[in-house]
Design goal:
about 30% helix, single chain, Thiol Ester Dehydrase, Chain A, five-stranded antiparallel β-sheet, alpha+beta, about 190 residues, two-stranded parallel ribbon
Length: about 190
């Protein structure tokens, strides 16, 4: 229990120092007044493990970035679909940051978690780690993806579940999601 708390505390420190957050600056109630039934971050969390093979390597001997983007989208889509209970489609990939390379036979762990749920869209954070032989995880990538729930015709649908925000780290992720959402809207108004 102490380790889990410590890991959450460390994650909060890292998240709060990241420019993509704004803990306490949005004035939000973190979905507390949302009348929809809530699902927790843990409910929809997805973790996939991949071992890098020859077909995943680029000419420099590193993991091909496009392959990692594909795996990230797969994990995030499963997380969003699990939370919403609906078909979803990728609307945007925001802040895809490669921190270090991965190589042949590296074991990658991709962890997807909900950060925010709106009316028809939601945001998922995917952290990618290299897991060493002792089981320690070293972050190599972080990405934020936005999904929209859709019907059979591809039209947006209301998401039937809100997000239960329980921890300070989850609040920081929610605040960061709102800032990224506002930045996307500002870019759209600029024609981007």
């Amino acid at each position: 229990m102490t380790c889990a708390f410590r890991a959450e505390f460390i994650d909060t420190e890292v998240t709060m120092s990241n420019l993509n957050t704004g803990l306490g600056k949005t004035g939000t109630d973190y979905g507390a007044k949302d009348p929809r039934p809530k699902r927790s971050v843990e409910f929809s969390q997805v973790e996939n493990v991949y071992v890098i093979r020859y077909e995943n390597i680029n000419p420099t001997g590193r993991l091909f970035g496009g392959q990692l983007v594909s795996w990230i989208d797969e994990v995030a889509g499963a997380c969003a679909s699990r939370h919403t209970g609906l078909p979803v489609t990728t609307a945007s990939i925001d802040n895809l940051t490669f921190k270090r390379g991965a190589y042949l036979a590296d074991r990658l762990v991709l962890l997807g978690r909900m950060t925010y749920v709106g009316n028809t869209s939601c945001e998922v954070r995917v952290d990618t780690f290299i897991e060493d032989k002792e089981g320690y995880r070293h972050i190599i990538n972080r990405a934020f993806l936005t999904y929209v729930a859709i019907d059979e015709a591809g039209r947006p649908l209301p998401i039937p579940y809100g997000l239960e925000v329980k921890t300070v780290a989850e609040q920081a992720r929610w605040d960061g999601a709102l800032l990224r959402r506002n930045n996307r809207k500002a870019r759209q108004s600029d024609g981007f």
